[in-house]
Specification:
Keywords: Hydrolase. 53% of the residues lie in helices and 10% in strands. It is built from 13 helices and 5 strands. Strand 4, helix 9 and strand 5 form a beta-alpha-beta unit.
Length: 262
């Protein structure tokens, strides 16, 4: 009976730890989400970062928080939602972007569209709708980012498919005269250095959850977790390492600091 009691305590502790990691990774809202920030008047110029899990920053670095620390003159609203596609963002563009009355908006959206094999024409139509609505309703500066690779080996079917989505992103940026931030290009430049073999795409929920356990329970950095899996910029073939998040934050900082195009 004593052993059984110990086992019950151990099991309860394990379940509690798993539940905590699950909440922190998949259910916890980002810092300063639109539902909180945009319900009240802005005290500083607002910047909305809209996207999916790479923007929400709970499975990987919170690069929006890094910008918040670097640029105290702005209020940064994190409009990233885990698992979102461009169709999901289109559904919340009014509440999560327009209602915030931003002076600047970044869009990083499409990784889940690639993974779900959303048709390119559908992706193009929804992305164009979001861009047009933000431009006409807010007048904000708007930057759209190219999608980072999925897995660190560029010579895979999924990355060849991803190239089509990035071509659409660049096309829409050109057509609508908004800024284009070359996130994918920065990543591939780094991954092409050294000549070593790179890991092919192999995302799974157990891999992502295992990375979250290492970070939230074992206190390992996202960089360290990736290195243990033979990766450099992607923790679990999808989400960013600390280095990857710093690249994204630096790109955004350079854009915010540059004078707006006339």
């Amino acid at each position: 009976m004593k052993i059984l009691g110990v086992l019950c305590v151990v099991l309860a502790a394990a379940l509690g730890a798993a539940g905590m990691v699950g909440y922190l990774t998949f259910l916890r809202p980002p810092d300063n989400p639109p539902s909180d920030a945009c319900a009240k008047p802005a005290e500083r110029p607002r910047v909305v970062a809209a996207g999916a899990s790479m923007t929400q920053g709970s499975l990987g670095p919170d690069w929006v928080a890094a910008l918040r620390a670097k640029h105290p003159g702005y209020e940064f609203v994190n409009a990233g939602v885990n698992g979102n596609t461009i169709a999901d963002l289109r559904q919340r563009v009014e509440t999560d972007i327009v209602a915030c009355h931003p002076v600047a908006v970044t869009l990083l959206i499409g990784t889940n569209d690639v993974r779900n094999e959303v048709p390119l024409d559908q992706y193009r139509d929804d992305l164009r709708t979001v861009v047009d609505r933000v431009k006409t309703a807010t007048g904000a500066r708007l930057a759209i980012m190219s999608l980072p690779p999925l897995g660190e080996d560029p010579d895979t079917d999924i990355n060849r498919r991803l190239a089509g989505y990035n071509a659409v992103i660049k096309e829409i940026a050109t057509q609508t005269k908004i800024d284009y931030l070359p996130l994918h290009e920065r990543f591939t430049d780094i991954l092409g250095q050294g000549g070593q073999a790179r890991t092919a795409y192999g995302f799974s929920f157990p891999l992502a959850f295992g990375a979250a356990v290492q970070h939230y329970l074992l206190r390992r950095s996202w960089d360290e977790i990736a290195r243990r899996g033979g990766r450099e910029l992607l923790v679990d073939h999808v989400h960013l390492t600390d280095r990857g998040g710093a690249i994204l934050a630096d790109l955004t900082t350079s854009w915010l600091s540059a004078p707006a195009a006339s």
